[in-house]
Design a protein that fits this description.
The chain is α/β, with parallel strands linked by helices. It contains eleven helices and 13 strands. Bound molecules: N-carbamoyl-L-aspartate and zinc ion (2 copies). One zinc ion (ZN) binds next to loops. It is an enzyme of class 3 (hydrolase).
Length: about 375
């Protein structure tokens, strides 16, 4: 279903840290990773997928775009309790909660959220993606709240796409950066921003060239696939996510950024489960589910780059450092043992098709 990774990646400048991994190591041990962009949904869907993330990741930044968006601190605390209730009793997984920014979010909510341990607010331009109808119609309406965030050191996470129908869908990230993000950072130069799930050379360059308070998360699908994957052999709904996959040179830019070792880029799977029948539909949902295979696929992609030694920074250090969180101290071990990704996973009363379904991964997580 998905195109295999094209082997066009240059292997020059290979910098494998020998202390962690030797040429064709049969296992690697890395500090336990965190997922800085995760959709867990609620209800029965939550109970299906949450344990799969908690099996691998120590912490995850939980996206607030539920059907009833998580807009108030009290809701985030309720949601956190239902996440913990969906996990085995003695789990050490820690959900890092976020709030959904709206035109009406009061500046006072910022301190309340921070005091309650909420780590960030999420900016969804209204209409940009799944469950974003209550999102922001104009960032200028949110300036007092964004200013409060800058002052309190609370992060802004951004779905970076404009929504105007005149803008070509493949240009929406670039236009957002130019017309919304850049001007916003000129007004609030200290605001800590994560540009989520970046997909273009423009986003990579922007993040590389701005100050240290701007970083980006990178998904496995945007490292792996270009937009041909959407149409390979017919319409491929399970390759559809937002921001939509881009052309090959953008995939390469994102791939190179992720594997470069630059601390501004870190792991955020954007694992976004949708029931199979809601994707295989006349109007299919946007979102790719990757929780149970993401770390293994990142490892494969870093190895493809000849940069397996940079995996640990990307998956376990850069995000924690940017968020001001302590690095995890426990480890996960990946073993070289090919296995086939299942065609689907149970999801509530139905199923969800993962990224890389029925394909072979070369790394497995040791139990
Ligand atoms: N990435 C997606 O295509 N979908 C996400 C929303 C988002 O992260 O934009 C979802 O919640 O399904
Ligand atoms: Zn998004
Ligand atoms: Zn997302």
């Amino acid at each position: 279903m998905f195109s295999p990774l094209t082997s066009t990646i240059s292997r020059s400048g290979e910098r494998v840290m020998r202390s962690i991994v030797s040429a064709a190591a049969s296992s690697i041990s890395i500090t336990r990773p965190d997922d800085f962009h995760l959709h867990l949904r609620d209800g029965a869907g939550l109970r299906s997928v949450a344990p799969l993330s908690a099996d691998v990741f120590k912490r995850a930044v939980i996206m607030p775009n539920l059907k009833h968006p998580v807009v108030r601190t009290a809701q985030a605390l309720d949601y956190k309790r239902s996440i913990m209730d969906a996990l085995p009793k003695h789990t050490d997984f820690e959900p890092l909660m976020t709030l959904y920014l709206t035109d009406k979010t009061a500046p006072e909510e910022v301190q309340a959220a921070k005091d309650a341990g909420v780590v960030a607010f999420k900016l969804y331009p209204a209409g940009a993606t799944t469950n974003s109808d209550s999102g922001v119609t104009d960032v200028n309406r949110c300036l007092p709240t964004l200013n409060a965030m800058a002052e309190a050191g609370v992060l802004l996470l951004v779905h970076g796409e404009v929504t105007s129908p005149e803008v070509d869908i493949f240009d929406r990230e670039m236009v957002f950066i130019e017309t919304v993000l850049q001007p916003l950072l000129e007004q609030l130069p200290n605001l800590k921003v994560v540009l989520e799930h970046i997909t273009t050379q423009h986003a990579v360059s922007f993040v590389e060239s701005t100050a240290a308070n701007v970083a980006a998360s990178i998904t496995p699908q945007h490292m792996l696939l270009n937009r041909n994957a959407l149409f390979q052999g017919g319409l491929q709904p399970h390759a559809y996510c937002l921001p939509v996959l881009k052309r090959e040179r953008h995939r390469q830019a994102v791939f190179n950024a992720a594997t470069s070792g630059n601390p501004k880029f870190f792991l955020g799977t954007d694992s976004a489960p949708h029931a199979r029948e809601t994707k295989e539909a006349s109007c299919g949902c946007a979102g790719i589910f990757s929780a149970p295979i993401a770390l293994q696929l990142y490892a494969q992609l870093f190895e493809e780059a000849g940069r397996l030694g940079n995996l640990e920074g990307f998956s376990s250090y850069h995000g924690a450092d940017f968020y001001g969180l302590p690095r995890n101290t426990d480890k996960v071990e990946l073993i070289r043992e090919p296995w086939q990704v299942p065609g689907c996973y149970p999801y509530a009363s139905t199923s969800v098709v993962p990224l890389f379904a029925e394909k072979k991964l070369s790394w497995k997580i040791a139990k």
